[in-house]
Amino acid sequence: MASASLQRPALSRRVGLPIHAVSDLLADLESRGFVQVTGAHGGMPGRSRLSYALRADAALAMGFDIGGTKIASALCDMRGKLLAEHTEPTSRNGADELVSQLAAIADRLCSQSGQPRFRVRNTVIGVPAAIDQSGRASLAGNLPGIEDVDLLPPLAQALGGSVVLDNDVNLALVAEAMGHPPDTMQNTAFVALGTGIGGALMVHGQLLRGAHGGAGEMGYLPLWQSAGNGWTTLEDQVGEAGIRRRYVAAGGSSRMSVQDIFAAARAGEQAALDIIEETAGFVAQGVVSILSLLDVELLVFGGSIGAREELIERVRHHVSRAWPRPVTMRRSETGGRAGLLGGVELARRHMLSGLFGPA
After folding, report:
1. pLDDT tens digits, residue range 128-155?
2. Of 135, 138, 129, 108, which is closest to residue 120 (Cα–Cα)?
3. Which of 29, 40, 147, 245 is the Cys-Cys partner for 35 at CB 3.0 to 4.6 Å?
4. What's the Rg (C-alpha) of the chain?
5. Which pTM does this prediction carry?
6. pLDDT tens digit string along 297-310?
7. Residue 27 has pLDDT above 70, yes or no
């Protein structure tokens, strides 16, 4: 029910079912508390004159975006309206304490929105890690103590309802697709570049996860160092630490942050300009690897470094010289909230599918 309220004849036309079938469905939904009568048209008697509306807060979904330093969280209703949000520092004392922290945040979100906890049907938790089909995390260097731990049972007990763990960049890609016609993002890659580098892939409209949940983890892409030092990885070169290390090696100050380096490049400092150019070249190698394997039509860049237009422009330049077909590249439209928004939306979709069946 996208509209505020509808009558049975209008619902029958919209869903393509006979009015008696719509009546049975409405009776069932009303008995379960998901719809309510909002009045009668013109005050006229008769069931066909009654207007029905979705009780959007009868079931709720929750999302968490867990980073190495902070946890962002939100609660939404069936329509996707955000009812409460909260952010706090991440506990780094292992899995048990992290589970307890999430349970406390869930209580806070429900209290803040005035909603009872039992209405939360589905929760999706994004983490900076690869998540396999059993829900176990790997490649989780930013969250000590959660690798190879069966987190789902304690999380389900602490949070209630259905709980799903997912990669945070996968959720960012879900958020990026929200509000866009499905046929415009059928084959898309999301490149997240900040402290480290992560990626997510969508092929034919479906997230590509891989055998162990690590599809798109382009930070592990090997690069050959021409100086004769053997192999390095893409993350070693284009993560924050790698950019600062190369800047110092080029004669820059060790006190400069990556943000300072970009500011110095805008001011025309040659060492900073050279490092940004070199960084774009490394990123372009990763992008061309994605293009050659998956032939995506859109690349979205996010993260504190990846969303910088001056970097994206240089990546475009390098890719255009190496890739024979045009490809669209743009910065993320959802910014730093991408993982959170994607988590809430995916939890909402799981909730609606469980309550009413696949869309």
Report:
1. 888 988 888 888 877 878 888 888 999 9
2. 108
3. 29
4. 24
5. 0.84
6. 999 999 999 999 99
7. no
